[in-house]
Amino acid sequence: MPRAILVILDGLRRDLVTPQTTPHLAAFAARSEQFAAHRTVFPSCTRVVSASLATGCYPARHGLQGNTMALMENGRLVRHDAGRPDFLQHKRRVTGRSLAVPTLAERLTGSGGAIIFSNVSPGAAYAHDPDGFGRVYHRAGSFGRDRVPLPEDEQLRITLDVEGDRAMTERFIREAVLPYDPPALAVLWLGEPDATQHALPMGSPGHLAVLQEADRNAGRVMDAVATLADRDDVLLLIGSDHGHQTVTGVIDIDEELVTAGLKESLESTDVVVASNGTSALLYVHPDFVARTPLVGDFLASQEWAETVFDGGALASVGQGRDHGLAFAVSMRASDEPNAYGVAGSSLVAERAGNKADILGSGQHGGLGAGEQAPFLMIDGAGFSPGVARHEPSCITDIAPTILTHLGLPVSGMDGRALQAMRGGGNG
């Protein structure tokens, strides 16, 4: 029976997968196919990536533009944290759709189904199945078909740390990997090492200890899958959603715009800034579109804005212009190493509310080399052990790859099946 098992170690950069830091992943590389030019989407943030992975589409298609984004509501631009448990349901009420294209969970209805275990933000977890076609397990609430809450004894009561990840991994193996009536797709999304990287410098002793624990969890799944060799046709995919850069400074873009006379006040909604870590999305209300060129000129002149996308250029990073999105900014980045020798640093856009970035710790969201270097390894039919492929691949390729393994149609996706890349075909 064909089935797919996907394991994501949130935030793990490709260059940190080594025999010293992650021995289980390094050993898996020898018996899987690696993707040496794998990239993620923009913004390189988990909620966006979750939606892109689940749909095989870029944000312009699925509609979840950022970890933080704005919606046009009753004539006003309203900024939202897409990580909130109720965000996608709110988005459905406002726009008519949670996500604008089907997820893998929806596509697999009637074809074996999907189960997702996730220990990241609620919004990122629910982006895999916002409309209740499969089962989603998360510490903020677990749901079955039609998003009906599961009974209390089936809820996932864990913490966002290595202990919580381990408990979730062990349950995932029992309930989604080893059963004789398994789902067609089982997804395990670990919260580490991302959670620790936001608090500690990459390469520090505390960070490396957490990396090793995350690696052990991946190893537990590998060992469990190995016992299925004579029973099921398993496609095992192990990777990450993005990497991290070291934070070297924080820019308050709202304040910069107010000082330049391009935004009425820090709280005004004429121009709305949505920080996405090392990137930002800027929305301009339709009543103030005449100001858009001035805002564009201002952004282009700022040394903290490394790359600015506007108008048609938004499509080049997979974004559209819904809800007044006028600009996407990737903050200034460099190859400068941190105190532990890990290369890659960036400025960040100051976040709303009480969320603060820690100088010297990790962050992501933009186009820096480190954050755009997730890893991906695949073991199963159509992939060659020990081979490193250098053709560009993307997070959006994972969904069509899974559907192809399951023998199901692939259509309406931006990504392509990775089994077809050698022959030049597409999904």
TrEMBL record:
The protein's name in its UniProt record:
Nucleotide pyrophosphatase
Classification via SUPFAM superfamilies = Alkaline phosphatase-like
One Gene Ontology molecular-function label = hydrolase activity
Give a Pfam family name: Phosphodiest
